[in-house]
């Protein structure tokens, strides 16, 4: 097990009521209602869910790692976008699991450079490191002209 030798930041989030409750941090600025999606047998509604929160955290962390790798390699990029799709479902052993697809757009570089930066980011991103060997993570580098943007 890898341990943190020098802690730079720490946060605490409490969940109350599971998939039909809320989450809040020790900082009052973060408070989110949690709702079970209809696809999972819940009412849906205005709340977020654990999979959306994981996708938000992973995509933001991976994008930061990608920009770090570009700076370290002294490669100038014009911008980047990382879209994380998190799937929830049954695993082969009958339990539940998640899988992630990361679609990565790196603007202002050729495709091969974008792939190299994405591979470097996957090596250093804390979410990638935490999930490696535990869940399926697919990395897709999108060619700029093929990315439709939006949702």
UniProtKB/TrEMBL annotation:
Gene3D superfamilies named among the record's database cross-references: 2.20.25.10, 3.30.300.20
Region annotation (Disordered) ranges: 25-47
GO biological process, one term: response to oxidative stress
Signal peptide: none
UniProt biased composition (Polar residues): 25-35
Family assignment from sequence similarity: Belongs to the OsmC/Ohr family.
Name this polypeptide is given: Organic hydroperoxide resistance protein
Originating species: Paenibacillus rhizophilus
